[in-house]
């Protein structure tokens, strides 16, 4: 009884399109996509930052970090 058929989903989609219009839905999709992209980017940067904290503190590691920061 509580399951949704394809017709329920289709009617719901038509109502949403009529209420908000395609331009607002397109902008909403862009905003959500941009937020997800920024979230993934920040997670990747955080992983790189924590990975550098786990490296051994030796002279060789410090020289490598210094050389890589000079190249960038």
UniProtKB/TrEMBL annotation:
Residues 46-72 are annotated as: Disordered. Signal peptide: none annotated. It is found in: Cell membrane. One of its GO terms (molecular function) is protein transmembrane transporter activity. One of its GO terms (biological process) is protein transport by the Tat complex. It is a single-pass membrane protein. Residues 63-72 have a biased composition (Polar residues). Pfam families: TatA_B_E (PF02416). GO terms for cellular component: TAT protein transport complex. The keyword Cell membrane applies. Belongs to the TatA/E family. Part of the twin-arginine translocation (Tat) system that transports large folded proteins containing a characteristic twin-arginine motif in their signal peptide across membranes. TatA could form the protein-conducting channel of the Tat system. The Tat system comprises two distinct complexes: a TatABC complex, containing multiple copies of TatA, TatB and TatC subunits, and a separate TatA complex, containing only TatA subunits. Substrates initially bind to the TatABC complex, which probably triggers association of the separate TatA complex to form the active translocon. This is Sec-independent protein translocase protein TatA. It comes from Acinetobacter venetianus (strain ATCC 31012 / DSM 23050 / BCRC 14357 / CCUG 45561 / CIP 110063 / KCTC 2702 / LMG 19082 / RAG-1).
